Give the backbone structure.
Amino acid sequence: MADALDLLKSRRSVSAAFLAEPAPDEAQLAEMLTVAARVPDHGKLAPWRFIIVRGDARKEASEALAKRFRVLFPDAEPAKAEEQRAVLAKAPLVVLVVSKAAPHVKIPEMEQLLSAGAAAMNLVHAAHALGFTAQWLTGWMAYDEEAATILGLAPGERLIAAVHIGTSTVPGSDRPRPPLSEIVSEWKPQS
């Protein structure tokens, strides 16, 4: 296994359309989900959960989402509407990361939501560490209550990520990253 920092620096996203078999096997998926669950979790609430979408379920879920898309966006270009028929069927495996953030006497909902985001990122890194490629997507379905119901979310839950996982069929390429000088500052006391 690569040095941890080299591994983190080498992670790249590849479009789900270029992810193919093999997908992780059961043991690899369990290892990825174990890593995904090792995130900051103030109050030990586990304010997230995972939904696995694979096999024929990917197509069935995509078809149901495509029907909802056509209701929400009746004026969408036909090609865009047709794309939705494969929205969860491009990669061989999709893991939905679901936030269960809720009001709590001590733990702000924002902390719970960030914990779910950290779980999604850990999942992406774990897939990379095991030699797979992952792409974190959301899109319109992350903001629609009926889409959430189609995907099996309970009332009050939110889709944080649809992490598409498989084996890349194309070489990964990096995108420009902002120079640290543009994104880092040092706090100084106000006079």
Observations:
- Helices lie at 4-10, 26-36, 56-72, 78-83, 109-129, 145-150, 180-183.
- The chain has a mean pLDDT of 94.
- The first strand starts at residue 19 and ends at 20.
- The two ends are 50 Å apart (CA to CA).
